[in-house]
Amino acid sequence: MNLEKLRPDKYLKYLNPTNLFATKRTKEILSVNPTVIPHREEAKEVVVSIFDYNADSLEEKKLSAINDCLMYKTSGRTTWINVDGLRKTDVEAVCTHFDIHPLVIEDILSINQRPKLDEEVNSIFCLLNMLYFNEQTHAVEQEQISIVLAKDVVISFQEDAHRDVFTSLREKLKTTNSKIRQRGADYLCYTLLDMIVDHYFIVMEKLGDHIEEVEEQVTRGANTRSLANITHLRKELIILKRNFSPVREVVNGFLRSESELLEDRHTKYYKDVYDHIVQASELSENYRDVLVSLQDLHINNVNMKMNEVMKVMAIVTCLLAPPTVIGGVFGMNFEKIPFTSNGIGFHVTVGFMLLIPIVMLYIFKRRGWF
Fold first, then answer.
1. CATH value at residue 10
2. Residues 327, 246 within the same domain
């Protein structure tokens, strides 16, 4: 027998109530203390991608040395520098060369930072999370990304070198007549934000599919597993809510900014991103309301089952009461009891014990008690 197909760990974990309700996940989501400086492990691998372009030409490179990207500060074209994997020395080298404030360096190297926007004289810095949905654990995973907009340069810092949501952007940059090749760095920054926010909807769609599955489980019958699934999904929605509201403030900061790095003609594009994040925030609230309703439905189903059991037990108790009384009367130790010396006395007594419950069942049924 193939034990890998059986996957006993998938089922044995439910024997532990702690695993069933995923209390460890609660600690991961809620244990964020901004007063404690977390320790970030240095990335084992750092990949630097360069897209240096204008309307007519594109230069694409992958660099292994961080210092090789510093020459693009004054290339005269629009440059996107994407750093996958964070090391303190590399981040400091890039930020120092591009005149980025030291506090921004701390934010880039931070962990579990709240999405934010900081505006300096020569740069605009924003930090937010890219969200992914893990199909194995049915959990929302987040990766912190920092974006710095400077004159003709956009620098993005990512934690994971093996995944992001910018694949379609890279394809557009390779197309000569694409709109992004005709625009400046602020339009590139908008595109990065737009793709991050649009991917939120993909994560929410997958969460919505699991909510539908849980709804079917609760509708068919309430059990401990369905309650655990509801609890798990509500925890994942906390991650969405923790990201959506601050990201809305970040995009709104771009709309209210008067920086010379942002062209007026691109304001409407940032407004579109703002509309999307507002819609995502409202949709997450709808999901939360659905889960609250499912939890109430689960509790109601449990109460209904309990009421059905109690009703059956009450009816059985009522039906057994008359035979119990009759048996108790004829079981008393008196010398003379009616029908005790009669040949058909036993049959008459048993007949009454059966007849009275049958009559009671008929009356209960007529009254609609069951």
1. 3.30.460.20
2. no
Find all residues with CB under 8 Å of 259, minimum gap 6, and list them. 119, 124
| Residues 6+ positions from 190 with CB-CB distance below 8 Å | 254, 266, 269, 270, 273
> Residue 85 has what pLDDT?
87
Examine the fold and report which residue of 301, 322, 356 is the final residue of a domain before the chain moves on: 301
Confidence at 11, pLDDT banded by 50, 70, 90: very low
Report residue 153 as tokens.
Answer: 């340069």
256 secondary structure, DSSP code: H
Could you tell me which residues come within 8 angstroms of residue 142 by beta carbon, excluding any fewer than 6 positions away? 129, 130, 131, 132, 239, 243
Contacting residues for 257 by C-beta, under 8 A, at least 6 apart = 119, 124
**Among the three residues 250, 283, 301, which one is the final residue of a domain in this structure?**
301
pTM over 0.90: no
Q: What is the dihedral of CA 159, 165, 169, 174, to 10 degrees?
A: 80
> What is the Cα–Cα distance from 91 to 103, expressed in whole angstroms?
12
Phi, psi of 137 (to 5 degrees): -95, -5
Same domain, 226 and 340: no
Clarify whether residues 173 and 294 are in a common domain: yes
Exposed/middle/buried for residue 354 (C-beta within 10 Å: 0-12, 13-18, 19+): exposed
